[in-house]
Fold this protein.
Amino acid sequence: MNTSLGYHTLSIYMKLTVKELRTLHKIFGDSSETYFVDDPKYRPMRKLHRIPPYTNINYGQKYKGLSWTLRYCGSSPEYLRNNLDDQQDRPCSINATINPKYLIGCHDDYIATADSTYLTRLIERFNYEAMNISPMLKEFNSYSLNRIDYCVNFDLAELGIDCVPEIYMALIKRADIPPHFEERKEYVKDDGGGKFHRKKSGADSFFLINNSLRINCYNKYAQMKRKDPDNPNLENYRNIVRFEIQYRYPKILYLKNQTKDWDTFVDLMSILQSDEVCKNELTKYYNKTIGKGDYYTLDGARSRIRSMNFCASKESRLMGALKLVNQCRGVFRAKNSLTGAELAEFKRSLRDLGEIGVNPVTIPREGNIKYLPNLMSAYLIQAEETQRQFEEYYHKPYFG
């Protein structure tokens, strides 16, 4: 199934001495399988036979699922400052970016995410590819993690939702932006197709960033149509909304400190790539941004609130929050219009709405759609039912 939860990219690194990096730079340069990605800003250094600060390395084979980056630095300030004579200075590093599905050869099932069952095969394949280049690249367990992308695919057709991704994205783009995040925007051309002169968020995505984390919800079909329009399997992405969280190095450090009962890097990865961790991390940030609760029209959401038989003051407060979000055309804009006690009351109302299964973003009146389920809730309900059926089937008595 396209509907799936797990991860799709990870990046690992290993520290190197200057001598080790120079040796690896030559090994990659001499390899018939790899090539240096040309970067115009580093061409003058290459002409002088100098190693640039970053050297990206790809394989000649398309869709390999593995690429390398050499990071060169002459010496580390910490080493020089502290005069660590008893240790080798390792100011350089090599980074491997891995797409698990492609690396282990699952090209036919690429849309679905990787899960905990892929780790053993991923490690075996990585070790094979690394040793095929040079023993200096060592095995997977010699590396450390500096990025992992958790993601969940919502295939609307598989979830039984009669709707197109564009409608969901229009609602999702009115979601909340948590503190310390900002929406990523890009320069766009003016209407006449001239110069880039203003920034605008992507029409098919809701992309939030900070120094340690990226949160992105997007129309997968629209993304693939831009990036790979000749893909023969393009129509397979038609109904997919993808939600992903990209953990960068500072967030990885936090996760490592919060994770217990691991000794080796492989132990750590088996925990961080477990189905439970993937589900917990994705659900946490989905609720923080897109929110809990299903989507209703404004009248439908009001009816839902009235059906709960709250006291008059609570009902009025929730109705007011709905009205404000509707007027401001989004949760974040509504939140930014308030301060002090009013803001605190609004946040309280958002929590209360989530508890009764109402998303504060409401479906516009135009159109015939009156209700849409929360995508994460729909996925978790389906996953739980699938698991129940699986256990029921394999635990039923056998009368042979």
Notes: The mean pLDDT is 91.
